[in-house]
Design a protein that fits this description.
This protein is 73% helix and 0% strand. With 151 residues, the chain is mostly helical. This is DUF3429 domain-containing protein.
C-alpha cells in the first residue's frame, strides 16, 4: 500500500479485527465459544459487527469533519454537513432487527466510501486516503455481507 503512512495502515488494519471476528462467528458459530464465558454476547457474532460498526461510522464522521476544516465558505459548510451523515445514519438506521440493522450498516459503509471519495476529490483528504479507504471498506463490506447473506 504505497504511500500510506505505516501507522495509519497498521491501525486501520487492526480496526478490522472486530468485523472479521463478527463474520467468523457467523460462519463458524463455535468460534464464539473460544473466548469462554467472559465475553458477553454483545461482543460475538452479528452484534459485535453492529456495535463496532456504529462506533466506526461515528469516528469517521469526526475524520470527515476534520477534512472539512481545510475548506472555506460554502465548501466548508457542505463538508461539515456531509461529515455528520455517517454518525446520524448509524444512530438512526442501525437498530432493531439485527438482519435489517446489518443491511443498513452495510449501506452506511458504502455511503461512507462515497463521502471519502467526495472529500478526496475536493482536495481535503491526504493523497493516500482513497487507497486506504478502499482497502478497509472492501473488508468491512465483505464482513458485513456475511450475516446479511447467511443469517
Amino acid at each position: 500500500m504505497k504511500g500510506i503512512p505505516v501507522s495509519a495502515l497498521t491501525l486501520g488494519l487492526a480496526g478490522l479485527i472486530p468485523f472479521l471476528w463478527g463474520a467468523a462467528n457467523v460462519v463458524w458459530p463455535a468460534s464464539g465459544g473460544w473466548v469462554g464465558a467472559w465475553l458477553p454476547p454483545m461482543f460475538r457474532g452479528t452484534y459485535v459487527s453492529l456495535t463496532y460498526g456504529v462506533v466506526i461510522l461515528s469516528f469517521m464522521s469526526g475524520v470527515l469533519w476534520g477534512f472539512a476544516t481545510k475548506a472555506k465558505g460554502a465548501k466548508a459548510a457542505l463538508g461539515y454537513a456531509l461529515s455528520v451523515v455517517p454518525a446520524l445514519w448509524g444512530f438512526i438506521m442501525v437498530n432493531g432487527d439485527p438482519a435489517n440493522a446489518a443491511v443498513n450498516l452495510w449501506a452506511g459503509f458504502a455511503g461512507l466510501l462515497m463521502l471519502d471519495w467526495f472529500f478526496a476529490q475536493q482536495g481535503l483528504a491526504p493523497a493516500w486516503w482513497m487507497r486506504l479507504r478502499v482497502l478497509l471498506s472492501a473488508v468491512v463490506l465483505t464482513c458485513l455481507a456475511v450475516p446479511i447473506l447467511l443469517e
